[in-house]
Design goal:
Keywords: Membrane, Nucleotidyltransferase, RNA-directed DNA polymerase, Transferase, Transmembrane, Transmembrane helix. By secondary structure, the protein is α+β, with helices and mostly antiparallel strands. The protein is built from 42 helices and 31 strands. Among the domains are: 1-51, no CATH class; 61-277, Orthogonal Bundle (hpI Integrase, Chain A), CATH 1.10.443; 306-366, no CATH class; 379-418, no CATH class; 433-465 and 495-565, no CATH class; 958-1011 and 1092-1109, no CATH class; 1016-1086, no CATH class; 1119-1258, 2-Layer Sandwich (Nucleotidyltransferase, domain 5).
């Protein structure tokens, strides 16, 4: 053993070794180690450099309040409830992590608003340590508190586990909840969740602890309440502080006969609650400042009076009459106050960015989200009827012993098992209150072009300025300076502020839908335009003006007549959806008329439907889906009659049922093959290939399906096959996850090869390729293992004959609503578990899909995730399943398949029956469905979007918007970036702009920067210059690096000593004679560095501003098509071009235009065109479509009408960009920019169809 005082880079220091040896001497009584107590060795334990002791800082009060608020939310998940409940319990009980994991759950007592238990072993007490926690917390009052909800969820988890001796509080969990059988969570995982939840990921507000999270540990929970005690030394006693920290005097006998020994700590906890609710705020650890429970306005000067702000607005409008002022553009009260203060003092200081926000963000930002309010329980069902709860008792005001309402129902229940269970009929309202059925129903007529006039009158009692008077009136909860609530409000007062704002925001949401899709008259103008008058007696005439737009049968719209108000989508009405993921012979919308398909499964569907209805299996499925149960919904006993019906159906069509299963995959392929033959499916080579084992397109060709478009071959020479015995860093860093491959071995997906690489090459003559193992991480799913088959050259050499087609969100919108349907719709989604790995490879080609881990070779038996052929084969199998599902349902519906996610929607009264039909089919054929992800509701999350089929609204998740804003903010602050950062930005922006196509064209600036690689300077010796041509190809690309240089191979030479070169002849014309090194400017195609141009930064700021004000929801119904006729054309020759077109109204009135432009006209606008303008004919055809939109808009009042105009064009390029509104081709992209700006201003969209040239000229 050698010790030194030098800095140690090993796993342990000398002091650790000495302490370990002293412990060994004491515990094992090893006499030869007495030397470790000598003075010489003891000097190594002395700390010569004085330093503070490292301690875990306590958590801020803000964190405990936000956690408690989240637990009380109705949409809090099981994962969040258990984790946050445990953290709160550790904080209130001042527990170490080891204490929480040694709590006997069977001995917990919940009584009289307290929870008591025993830690069976702790650091300071071997024989056990009592524990008590007050249930009320900072936000809870009465019987509805965070502790009750936490214990209720924990009790459900324990009951589901079936264990009776669980002695730990925090089980190991994944995103879906606890992992069964229950196992204790380790320290590192718990620490990860602690720091994650300190940022409140469920909230839309910025993370206030973003830069402080790493300072907190699990011991911070124990230190939190204990650190508050010294600040209240006058109100809490040392005995209470000792009891809270479990540091009682072991020599005292008083505790022994006190039995529980917890009442002192409970007094301490309730004293803290009382002080915080009265306005006291504990100071956090030194150098961390102060943090309060709710939003703070510290540091903001005295606000500007209302008349001052009004004067500012009038002055601004007088100076800038063309500018608009509304809440999204007007500065917040904070910003106005700061600037006004600096103007008055004539002292200019930096205004922090967090104060540079609009009035809208100022009002919305500080408030908790609408779903964050505490959901009150007002009544319960008891003794065959409903019992009203006393709300005064819930807030601590009712003391009447004989109150006619119920006080605490939970203490009156002896056992939860005695509560009656009633059958519940299927309903639509499975969503949280913010997404309730009523709200969706109320949004239906607004988004369906059915409302002629909309007005709202939200309750404004909390906004009344009368409350600001100094009299005996009600207390004011807000003021002009504090619109989001005055400081130091109680939780219940803040809830009132929040509810009033939520009511206002809901009214604004409904009015926004009316604006986006309002009712129009025969001329196309808004019907409400008839009310845009200002008569002298407005109050008397207002009702008369609005009355013609209302139903004369009743003053108020009856809820029962709401369906009749909805417009019907006719059988021939545009738009039509085309792609559903099932191939060319499958279509998503099965509500169209004159369907060509034959009803092959009518007999089977009829027999199954009768059984489902007679046994009410649809109700069982509804309850199963609502519970989130990961197991299949139906037992084998239930499925036996359905299996008999299926066998009879197959025998009736001449097929013998074969229920055998191919090895290494679970699906009954023979039954599937029989059904495919019955329905005469065109992909007849699929099932034989699956039964034999599929080819990967390397050694033998993959038979085409005939349902997907052919894939174009590339002339690029692929890389040769190679073997990589090391993995990507993501797999090497996450070895515990990587070692979970044993589960896949048990499933037979791959096997361990007992031999060397050379032996494998002899056993698999078709070829051996060893890819790299990696871990793919995503925000929406847990990490998963993938094999990179590109790095070993396999993907490049696999010939895939076709390319699959996938539906987008637009296809779902084109199918909505179902044709000739006015009833409510419901959605149903299915997810296939590990879809790619359900397809078995041909045994001869297993050697091509391998990887190495810790020196051992592994080869796949199935198609792995990450190989190009895997996606192709699953697309064919998934497409077949979708086509079968379409025929099974048969009734009017719409269905889609995106990779492995199925989506269907149809009438709400039939969806449970059809969904039950599909689930029974999947269980019988052993199709591996992830049942816990199955969803059936009016609102479905699908491919990242939230579709509300009842309300007719599609919504972007706020997480996606915040993620895109984060990318934008990062690139604005760092214009010198990487290719990966730009790809992330472009990918997410392209995804979001699917439903906001008018913003998509601006992304072409980012594409330009993505493919523009910055050049780098490299130097070569002067003696190398005469031979430089030996290292270059004719296009000046380096095929070999000059000796002694770092020039990358494939780098392109563009300049020598600031002189541009483009060919080898240019090099010979340069006169260079010097002894100094020669600098070359080279573009490295493999470089990851990128630089944003000023134009790209301008578009980044444009997107940033757009995302701050964009509504995350938009109607699913398409804009109505204009009934007129429109066409446009263009021609060009030499230095001029000419455009022309016409529109014909339904009334027969016709307008036309014809314009001629020269090359100089475009130069003035900084649009640089080719001198031969014929080469830019697509741009001029697009310009003609722009003029067409303007001509249509000018024929309507106000120049704005939300319609879609069908137009004709004989140019394919103009037709494409006018419909997609995206291109990266210059200068065509500049004309598309103008088209999108005009479409945004007028509300008019184009649907351009191709026509032959003569028809456009003769129109």
């Amino acid at each position: 053993m050698s010790l030194s005082r030098s800095t140690s880079h090993g796993s342990s220091s000398c002091s650790s070794v000495i302490k370990a040896l002293r412990w060994l001497l004491k515990s094992a009584e090893v006499g030869c180690l007495q030397v470790v107590h000598s003075v010489l060795i003891g000097t190594f334990l002395n700390q010569k450099v004085p330093r503070d002791r490292k301690q875990a800082p306590p958590l801020p009060l803000w964190a405990l309040v936000q956690w408690e608020r989240r637990v009380l939310m109705s949409n809090c998940t099981v994962l969040e409830t258990i984790l946050l409940g445990t953290f709160l319990l550790m904080a209130w009980g001042s527990l170490r992590f080891s204490d929480a994991q040694r709590l006997d759950l069977q001995k917990i007592i919940y009584h009289d608003g307290t929870m008591r238990g025993v830690i069976w072993r702790s650091k300071t007490a071997v024989s056990g340590m009592p524990l008590a926690v007050a249930a009320e917390g900072f936000l809870s009052k009465g019987s509805h508190n965070w502790l009750w909800k936490f214990l209720t969820v924990l009790d459900t988890v324990l009951a589901k586990s079936g264990l009776s001796d669980v002695d730990f509080l925090l089980p190991l969990m994944d995103e879906d909840g606890p992992i069964y059988p229950l196992q204790p969570m380790d320290y590192a995982t718990a620490l990860f969740y602690l720091r994650k939840f300190l940022g409140c990921p469920w909230s839309q507000r910025p993370d206030p602890l973003q830069h402080l999270k790493l300072n907190f540990t699990l011991h911070s929970l124990k230190a939190t309440l204990l650190s508050w005690g010294p600040q209240l030394h006058e109100k809490v006693t040392p005995e209470q502080r000792l009891s809270q920290g479990h540091h009682s005097d072991p020599n005292s006998s008083l505790d022994t006969y006190s039995r529980d020994v917890v009442w002192t700590s409970l007094t301490y906890q309730r004293k803290m609650i009382q002080e915080v609710q009265s306005g006291w705020r504990p100071a956090i650890a030194q150098h961390r400042g102060r943090m309060v429970v709710f939003y703070s306005f510290v540091g903001i000067p005295k606000g500007v009076p209302p008349y001052g702000i009004s004067a500012m607005k009038q002055k601004f409008m007088a100076n800038y009459p063309s500018e608009l002022i509304h809440a999204d553009l007007f500065p917040s009260t904070r910003l106005v106050s700061l600037v006004h203060d600096q103007l008055s003092k004539k002292v200019w200081k930096w205004v922090p960015w967090k104060y540079r926000i609009s009035l809208t963000r100022f009002m919305i930002g500080p408030l908790p989200c609408a779903k964050g309010k505490v959901q009150w329980l007002t009544e319960i069902q008891r003794d065959g009827g409903f019992k009203q709860l006393c709300m005064r008792y819930q807030v601590g005001k009712c003391q009447t012993p004989n109150c006619f309402t119920m006080h605490d129902p939970f203490n009156e229940i002896d056992s939860v098992e005695t509560l009656p269970v009633h059958e519940v009929d299927p309903v639509q309202d499975f969503a949280p209150p913010s997404d309730s059925f009523t709200r969706g129903r109320l949004s239906q007529p607004e988004q369906a072009n059915a409302v002629g006039y909309g007005a709202a009158s939200p309750s404004c009692c909390e906004y009344s300025r009368l409350k600001l008077r100094d009299d005996d009136g009600p207390k004011a909860l807000r003021s002009p300076e504090h619109l989001s609530g005055l400081p130091n409000l109680t939780p219940w007062e803040l809830q009132r502020v929040q509810e009033s704002f939520m009511m206002l925001s809901r009214c604004v949401e409904v009015l926004t839908l009316v604006f986006q899709a309002g009712l129009r008259d025969d001329s196309g103008a808004f019907a409400s335009r008839a009310t845009a008058q200002y008569p002298q007696k407005l109050a008397q005439l207002f009702a008369n003006l609005v009355a013609p737009l209302l139903d004369t049968s009743a003053l108020d719209l009856q809820w029962s007549s709401l369906d009749a108000l909805m417009p019907t989508k006719h059988l021939s009405e545009y738009p039509f959806a085309q792609i559903d993921g099932g191939g060319a012979f499958s279509h998503p919308d099965w509500s169209q008329d004159n369907r060509q398909e034959h009803d092959w499964f009518k007999m089977l569907r009829t027999s199954w439907m009768n059984r489902i209805i007679s046994e009410r299996l649809d109700k069982i499925l509804l309850a199963h889906v609502a519970s989130g149960n990961p197991s299949p919904p139906f037992s084998m006993e239930t499925l036996t009659p359905f299996k008999d019906d299926l066998e009879k159906f197959l025998e009736a069509h001449g097929h013998t049922p074969d229920w055998s299963v191919r090895q290494h995959q679970p699906i009954h392929l023979h039954i599937l093959h029989s059904l495919q033959k019955i329905m005469h499916d065109v992909d007849f080579t699929l099932l034989p290939s699956l039964l034999e084992g599929v080819r990967n397109g390397f050694s033998e060709a993959i038979p085409p399906s005939g349902i997907f478009p052919p894939k174009e071959r590339t002339d690029i020479e692929p890389d040769p096959l190679s073997a990589h015995l090391s993995n990507w860093q993501s797999a090497e860093e996450d070895l515990p996850l990587t070692r979970e491959l044993e589960e896949e071995i048990d499933k037979g997906w791959f096997f361990s090869y007992q031999g060397s690489l050379e032996e494998a090459q002899q056993e698999y003559p078709a070829g051996v390729a060893i890819g790299k193992l990696g871990v793919a991480r995503s925000d929406s799913r847990p990490p998963r293992l993938v094999v990179d088959s590109s790095v070993c050259g396999l993907n490049g050499r696999c010939i895939i004959p076709e390319r699959s087609t996938l539906p987008t969100a637009k296809e779902v919108l084109r199918s909505y609503p179902l044709r000739q349907c006015q009833r409510n719709l419901m959605g149903f989604s299915l997810d296939v578990k590990a879809a790619h790995k359900r397809i078995v490879l041909h045994p001869d080609e297993c050697g091509l899909v391998g990887f190495s881990l810790e020196g051992q070779l592994f080869f796949y038996r199935v198609t792995p995730f990450g190989a190009v052929f895997s996606a192709f084969w699953w697309a064919r199998l998934g497409g077949l399943l979708l086509r079968i599902f379409h025929h099974l349902i048969w009734l009017s519906h719409a269905g889609f398949l995106y990779v492995d996610d199925f989506l269907f929607f149809m009438e709400a009264n039939m969806m449970p029956l059809s969904a039950t039909l599909l689930c029974i089919f999947c269980q019988l054929l052993e199709i591996p469905i992830s049942w816990k992800k199955t969803a059936m509701h009016s609102s479905i999350d699908y491919i990242g979007w939230k579709f509300n089929f009842n309300a007719g609204i599609v919504t972007i998740p706020i997480e996606k918007i915040l993620k895109l804003r984060g990318y934008i903010e990062h690139l604005i602050s760092q214009p010198r970036t990487t290719r990966k950062s730009l790809e992330k930005l472009i990918g997410l922006a392209m995804w979001i702009t699917q439903l906001f196509p008018l913003m998509r064209i601006w992304i072409h600036y980012w594409y330009h920067d993505l493919y523009t690689i910055p050049a780098t300077h490299f130097s070569i010796d002067a003696g190398t210059w005469p031979r430089i041509h030996q290292y270059l190809t004719p296009n000046l690309t380096f095929h070999t690096a000059p000796l002694g240089s770092a020039i990358p191979i494939s780098g392109k030479l563009i300049a020598v000593r600031h002189q541009a070169v483009s060919s080898l002849a240019d090099l010979t014309s340069l006169y260079i004679k010097t002894d100094n090194r020669i600098w070359l400017r080279i573009i490295n195609p493999n470089s990851s560095k990128r630089k944003l141009r000023p134009d790209s930064l301008r578009i980044l700021k444009l997107f940033e501003h757009w995302l701050m004000g964009v509504s995350p929801s938009r109607p699913m119904r398409a804009k109505p098509y204009w009934n007129g006729v429109a066409a446009a054309d263009a021609c060009a020759s030499g230095s001029y071009c000419q455009i022309g077109g016409f529109i014909r109204h339904p009334s027969g009135v016709q307008f036309w235009f014809s314009e001629k432009f020269f090359h100089a006209d475009f130069d003035i606008l900084s649009i640089h065109l080719d001198p031969n303008m014929q080469r830019s004919i697509a741009s001029f055809e697009t310009l003609a479509q722009i003029a067409l939109v303007w001509l249509v808009a000018t024929s309507f009042p106000g120049f704005r009408i939300p319609i879609c105009v069908k137009s004709l064009s004989d140019n394919t390029g103009a037709e494409s960009v006018s419909n997609k509104l995206f291109t990266t081709t210059h200068p065509l992209c500049l004309f598309v920019e103008i088209l999108t700006c005009l479409a945004s201003t007028t509300g008019i969209e184009l649907d351009v169809s191709h026509t032959w040239r003569g028809q456009c000229h003769s129109g």
